[in-house]
């Protein structure tokens, strides 16, 4: 019998948690009212990460905005240089997200199912 693991931020190291908290706060500031939600997901959140795993972050915006996407990539890179924590933001518009869910794309289903709200 396999035991199901409940995804949780508790699997993150203190350094990962601090970097993720900073990323989330800065993302709220950068995005403002364009931000719908953020979720952490992936191997680290499931407790399956290894030494070189990144922390996956889903960022949902009302509309696509490549400038915001670049700003969040830059933010993640700056945090990596400062903290050695790798964050991997995936920025999607509401329309993209709804399309991926409607087509039952594996990544979208994983984020919807295991993503931990930030």
Calculate Rg over CA atoms.
Answer: 14 Å
DSSP summary: helix tally: 5
Low-pLDDT segments: none
Structural class by helix and strand composition: alpha+beta
Distance between the termini: 31 Å
Helix content: 40-55%
Strands, total number? 4
What's the arrangement of strands in the largest beta sheet?
Answer: 3-2-1-4
The largest sheet is: 4 strands, mixed
Shape: globular
Integer average pLDDT: 95
Beta fraction: 15-25%
H and E string: HEHEHEHHE
Overall description:
- There is one protein chain.
- The chain is an alpha+beta fold and 118 residues long.
- Helices cover 49% and strands 19% of the residues.
- The chain is built from 5 helices and 4 strands; from the N terminus they run H-E-H-E-H-E-H-H-E.
- It has helices at residues 14-31, 43-46, 66-83, 94-102, 106-114; strands at residues 35-41, 55-61, 87-93, 116-117.
- Strands 3-2-1-4 form a 4-stranded mixed beta sheet, sandwiched between helices.
- Helix 3 links the parallel strand 2 and strand 3 (87-93).
- The radius of gyration is 14 Å and the shape is globular.
- The mean pLDDT is 95.
